[in-house]
Write a structure and sequence with these properties.
This protein is an all-alpha fold. The protein contains four helices and no strands. It has one domain.
């Protein structure tokens, strides 16, 4: 699935704000920036895609780690 379509499909399931802040931590308007990129108002570059995929993997790992029973 294309990343842009994937992000549109999950925006009700996860916080795009936390994802955007992870991708662009120094950008105070990170959520708006991501939203514009998702909706086609700004180009979604290969570098953006790489950062977003990395952030999604980190968030996924964090979710999985937090749901594992602790010994």
């Amino acid at each position: 699935m294309e990343l842009r379509k994937f992000l549109k499909s999950i925006k009700e399931d996860i916080s795009l704000t936390s994802l955007a802040r992870k991708v662009w931590p120094d950008n105070k308007d990170a959520e708006s920036y991501l939203t514009r990129k998702i909706n086609g108002g700004r180009p979604l570059t290969a570098k953006d895609e790489e950062k977003i995929r990395t952030a999604l993997q980190e968030l996924g790992y964090k979710l999985i780690s937090n749901t594992q029973p602790k010994p």
